[in-house]
């Protein structure tokens, strides 16, 4: 029976890049993939346009993975965003930088990226076994035995790169957690990340589509402030969305409270400005006064309605209690989280293989020699903007680099 130098379980970007760079070192490599083709998630990435990475410097990258960015330092320095772009371009697909530094193929087609990668794998003679779901794995006499329902594969080294649990239709259903536990690894409880947020008593269904630029979002649990984040917020038919919510969602739990500042100034500042204006020109309407702030008119109208305040009421006639209610709604609007968007719609998974048990300089298990992890399976999730695919590719390449060949 053939013994591969490296068996890769899961053909997402992490597994594909590990395979390409291992094969370049003349290692024999097999990818075992449960779906009928590899790279299903690459096809849906960036709505089918594939936001493959970001133009930011490594230091910028390290801050895009919540509290876990430090773990990626070696991987990202070893295989930088520029290395990824250069690699793809060297295979004939030009890349371009679009809004906020996101990098996409010029053709804006994920299929072009995936086809290029499959062509490269074939050129490097990587064996790809599709429709092959790995059920179990163990290490026996220094050889890894990887079992599907019909075959057993043998390898000197094993990479588990089965992704997280989000978008299960693409193949990532959390199998890798179970496989890793077979080797004694611990799992930080997986939960949806990069997802939308449902709140109790959501009142803005009719304002769907209205968005707010770079607003402050504060996260509270049991009355204590946990974190603060700035980003764009979108009101949808059913919930809160937009990059500011989606990128921050890795920290949210049911029952948490979000305070969103829709008006861009703190309550005490607006309060002072309102009182000052009222003293100078008490006949000015509240609507006119607030038009000086960058808040969508439809949202303001809705707030007036909710609070039962007449929009043409004069500043001088606005009661103190209404003033406080209004300013609070605009500068510290409270939302209590009822649930997060589930794994079917989340773009990433928070949690995964505990980083304490993985060597960040090699991606090798600290428990089992020759066992490696890469990609979203690890307890790392990045912001939107190309940070997840880059992390998957960089950790995959680091695996290939770390395996010693003799
Ligand atoms: C809708 C959507 C859009 C996204 N857009 C972007 C974007 O534009 N930019 C970005 O950076 N990130 C994006 N992401 C996130 C990014 O796609 C993932 O973080 C990335 O694909 C993770 O790579 P991976 O190789 O770790 O895992 P995956 O890509 O999930 O690949 C894991 C592979 O393992 C296989 N597998 C699982 N279990 C088994 C098993 N038991 N046996 C054999 N094979 C198995 C799966 O079938 C799959 O092919 C997006 C995600 C989603 C859901």
Structure description:
There is one protein chain. The chain has helices spanning 13-24, 40-44, 58-62, 73-78, 81-90, 110-123, 175-181, 243-248, 267-280, 286-290, 297-307, 320-331, 387-402, and strands at 3-9, 29-32, 53-54, 95-97, 102-105, 127-129, 134-140, 143-148, 152-160, 187-193, 197-199, 211-221, 224-235, 240-241, 257-261, 333-340, 348-353, 371-373. By secondary structure, it is an alpha+beta fold. It has two domains: 3-192 and 347-402, FAD/NAD(P)-binding domain (3-Layer(bba) Sandwich), CATH 3.50.50; 196-341, no CATH class. Strands 1, 2, 6, 7, 8, 9 and 18 form a seven-stranded mixed sheet that branches. Strand 7 and strand 8 (143-148) form a beta hairpin. Helix 1 (13-24) runs parallel beside helix 6 (110-123). The model has no long low-confidence stretch (mean pLDDT 96). Residues 9-15, 32-35, 38, 40-41, 44-46, 51, 133-134, 161-163, 166-167, 170-172, 175, 347-348, 375-377, 386-389, 392 line the site of flavin-adenine dinucleotide (FAD).
What are its keywords?
FAD/NAD(P)-binding domain, 2 domains, 25% strand, 406 residues, 13 helices, seven-stranded mixed sheet, binds flavin-adenine dinucleotide, alpha+beta, six-stranded antiparallel sheet
């Amino acid at each position: 029976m053939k013994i591969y130098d490296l068996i890769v379980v899961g053909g997402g970007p992490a597994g594909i890049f590990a395979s390409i760079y291992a094969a370049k070192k003349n290692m024999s490599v097999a990818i075992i993939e449960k779906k009928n083709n590899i790279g299903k998630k690459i096809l849906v990435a960036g709505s089918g346009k594939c936001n493959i990475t970001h133009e930011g410097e490594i230091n910028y990258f390290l801050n895009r993975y919540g509290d876990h960015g430090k773990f990626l330092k070696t991987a990202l320095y070893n295989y930088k965003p520029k290395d990824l772009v250069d690699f793809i371009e060297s295979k004939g697909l030009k890349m371009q930088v679009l809004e906020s530094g996101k990098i996409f193929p010029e053709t804006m087609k994920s299929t072009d990226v995936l086809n290029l990668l499959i062509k490269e794998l074939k050129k490097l003679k990587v064996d790809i076994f599709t429709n092959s779901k790995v059920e179990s794995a163990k290490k026996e006499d220094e050889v890894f035995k990887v079992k599907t329902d019909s075959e057993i594969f043998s390898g000197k080294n094993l990479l588990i790169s089965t992704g997280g649990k989000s978008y299960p239709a693409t193949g990532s259903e959390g199998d890798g957690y179970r496989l890793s536990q077979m080797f004694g690894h611990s799992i930080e409880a997986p939960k949806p990340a990069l997802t939308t947020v449902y709140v109790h008593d959501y009142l803005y269904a009719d304002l769907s589509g209205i968005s707010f630029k770079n607003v402050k979002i504060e996260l509270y649990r049991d009355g204590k402030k946990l974190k603060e984040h700035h980003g764009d917020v979108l009101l949808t038919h059913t919930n809160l969305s937009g990059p500011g919510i989606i990128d921050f969602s890795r920290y949210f739990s049911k029952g948490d409270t979000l305070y969103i500042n829709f008006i861009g100034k703190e309550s005490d500042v607006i309060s002072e400005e309102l009182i000052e204006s009222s003293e100078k020109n008490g006949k000015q309407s509240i609507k006119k006064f607030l038009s000086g702030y960058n808040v969508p008119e439809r949202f303001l109208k809705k707030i007036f309605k909710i609070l039962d305040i007449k929009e043409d009421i004069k500043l001088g006639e606005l009661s103190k209690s209404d003033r406080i209610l209004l300013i609070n709604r605009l500068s510290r609007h409270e939302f209590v989280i009822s649930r997060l968007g589930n794994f079917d719609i989340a773009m990433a998974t928070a949690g995964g293989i505990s980083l304490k048990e993985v060597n960040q300089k090699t991606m090798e298990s600290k428990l089992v020699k020759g066992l490696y992890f890469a990609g979203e399976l690890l307890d790392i999730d990045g912001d939107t903007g190309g940070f997840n695919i880059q992390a998957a590719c960089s950790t995959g390449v680091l695996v290939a680099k770390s395996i010693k060949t003799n």
